[in-house]
Write a structure and sequence with these properties.
Radius of gyration: 29 Å
Order of helices and strands: EHHHHHEEEEEEEEEEE
Low-confidence stretches: 1-40
Structural class: alpha+beta
CATH topology of the largest domain: Immunoglobulin-like
Largest sheet: 7 strands, antiparallel
Mean pLDDT: 86
Oligomer: single chain
């Protein structure tokens, strides 16, 4: 008769302009009334159509690379930096356009473009804030948030208005802005990821209690990924045939699993259990004694087993 010895372990994942007042002093009866200066605006004659088009092309040239870079980011900190840089660049381009006196036929659409760019810059700052909170974790989610918002829609509308403002001169702008991109919600099925080391008798059961986030678990020995397992939110999965020895357990939780880049693109967190799992097997002749661990990641609750946040680039891929 064969028997097994189980070691049960439970873990935790917590998902989760100043005004200036002037007062005092008297006034002179002979003082002149104060009048407001007119607001500053573009000076000089309207630009020739070809010069105005050159100014619009310069906007596209300046802003295009930033959006390409944002789409390729793979860590929250990089999303944050890219979004901030784009917002600053957009604001700079808007200020430059404000100093331009456009052709008369394009004046209304030009003003709409400037306003739309300011709105788009604000939207990029919203993306930056979401990355700081790890609500957005890679460019695969950050870019859609930037290009699907009200600011991007306003830029497209202004670009269309400029294209039709003067039939003799269909102005073009806005090629820097990618088209609308739907947010994805990619998931793997709950269960063991094929491959890895399958040479032992050890067993791991992993349960998540938060239905709103999926989990990817990686078991590592000597810097090598031994096994991986994906668990959809609120489900349980098991891995068997784990080798003897100390296995470090990393896990990342979130939404929208990017299989190519091995990352959740939204609501991400990266953690590691502080204590390794020690697997042992003993042949007792008439029976075999081996180790079983049961790990539970809670949305809220007990902290009996310590785990620590790790940097996103410390999460092993394999």
């Amino acid at each position: 008769m064969r028997r097994r010895l189980a070691f049960v372990l439970a873990g935790l994942l917590v998902v989760g302009a100043a005004g200036c007042g002037f007062g005092g002093g008297g006034r002179s009866e002979s003082s002149a009334p104060v009048t407001s200066a007119p607001a500053a605006g573009p000076s000089g004659p309207p630009l020739a159509p070809e010069d105005y088009q050159a100014a619009l092309t310069a906007v596209d040239t300046a802003l295009g690379p930033g959006f390409v870079g944002l789409g390729g980011t793979l860590q929250p900190a990089d999303v944050l930096s890219a979004a901030d840089a784009i917002a600053l660049n957009i604001a700079t381009q808007a200020e430059t356009l404000k100093e331009i006196n456009p052709p008369v036929a394009a004046a209304a659409a030009h003003n709409n473009l400037v306003t739309a760019l300011d709105q788009l810059a604000d939207d990029l700052l919203v993306v930056s804030g979401a990355a700081a909170r790890k609500e957005v974790c890679t460019g695969a989610s950050g870019l859609p948030r930037a290009v699907n918002g009200a600011g991007a829609a306003a830029v497209r509308a202004a670009a269309q208005a400029l294209a039709t403002a003067d039939p003799a001169h269909p102005y073009t702008v806005g090629s820097f802005l990618p088209g609308e991109t739907p947010l994805q919600n990619r998931r793997l099925a709950t269960g063991n990821i094929h491959g890895g080391v399958t040479s032992g008798h050890g067993w791991l059961t992993f349960t998540t209690t938060d239905p709103n986030r999926d989990t990817m678990v990686r078991m590592v020995s000597g810097g090598r990924v031994i096994r991986s397992i994906y668990i959809q939110g609120g489900e349980t999965a098991s891995v068997d045939k784990l080798p003897d020895g100390a296995l470090e357990v990393y896990y990342t939780t979130g939404n929208d699993w990017d299989e190519v880049n091995q990352r959740f693109t939204r609501d991400c967190e990266f953690k590691k259990f502080d204590a390794p799992l020690e697997y042992r097997t003993r042949d007792l002749g008439s029976s075999l004694e081996y180790t079983i661990f049961e790990l539970i990641v809670y949305g809220m609750g007990d902290t009996s087993v310590a785990s620590s946040i790790v940097p996103p680039d410390a999460f092993p891929t394999g």
